Sequence to fold (420 residues):
Amino acid sequence: MLFKFRPLMATAAKVRATPAVAASTAAAELDEHVHYKHTDACHHLRWTAKESYEYMYARPWSRVVDFYADLVRAGAGAAGLAKLFGKDEKDYTLDTTEEKNYLTPSEKQTATISSKDRGGRWERVTFKIVLSYHGGSFDGWQKQPGLNTVQGLVEKHLGQFVDERKAKQLEARSLPIEGCAIVAGRTDKGVTALQQVCSFYTWRKDVKYGDIKHAINEAAPDKLKPLHVLEVAREFHPNFSAKWRRYMYIFPLDEDAKLILEEEHSSKVLENYDHNIKPQSFDVAKVDKILKKLAGKTLSYKMFARDTQASRSVGPPTECFMFHSRAAVAKLYSANEDYKEGMRVMCFELVANRFLRKMVRVLVATAIREAAAGAGEDALLNLMDATDRRATAPPAPPEGLCLVDVGYEDFSKQRCFIVD
Fold:
């Protein structure tokens, strides 16, 4: 299935400048916009970083933002996505009936020592909290001064459950009495989460699950919703105990897009090859084939990461194992009466043991760019060996990204939305 693009946004006309100013400006632009030199057969058809960025941000993202807002408001968690793919919500409902065992063999042996023979942190109570929040309503997860973040809001409302000793320590340091929420994975501004996982601990024994749920629920009604609260073993860590994370990216397709036969797309690519004209369509099925090549492999995704620390830009810290990577067309419906007909979108479903910063967004943008250029199915695999991150496309907008859920049991494809 192929779709036709709208033209890329036109660039503003440049004002005539003096030779000296023009020369310095040209030199600055040369430094800022040096393009990676691809050497494959379709290098002349590949969008530049600017062209890719403009195309991605020209999509009707407000429809996707509204869709995510409706999901968070409904409080169905990951199950809310089932209708997009014609699935039964009951098969994806959050399991709240059983307490999982998050201990490794070495931790199990250590845990056999009774807590009464220990003191301090072994006597504290740890709670696992599953949250749903709308990315468009917050400045990301991580607490930052002067910003409306999810962590800042959650910790503020957990302050009422802090034990007396910690409260006195905070008061002595002239700090607000707040709880400490440890998260499975931080999300950027604009990124929604349907089943984010965080933990909170206290030495108080009188704290009940319902009290925590009620407190967080009052923080930002319809924008931040606690789905489940459960007491877990002290060794539980939302990040380190997790075995996989699942992300969904919803990419709006043109409302006036016309279906193009595969033969017609092939002829367009050949025509573009002769006249050096950038392609005007991409094949959704081709995007899916490109993504499928990543599944079942441990690979270094350093070329697809952004804003990472130098120590985490080389070696094992860049390696991720991709359990599942697919793309498919779906119909996006909204509660807004103006959009009852629905909008065609392309959904990306990615499941891995971990993800690097902005990795999903770069993978989405690069997969679309490569499919449009007519690259082979190994396009993303070939880019793993690139020498510069400019070889990949700029990150797709955060509004399309959603952290679906986090898994603490072995991954099962039965819970995937996009399958053959």
Remarks:
- The two ends are 16 Å apart (CA to CA).
- The longest helix spans residues 359-373.
- The CA atoms of residues 320 and 354 lie 6 Å apart.
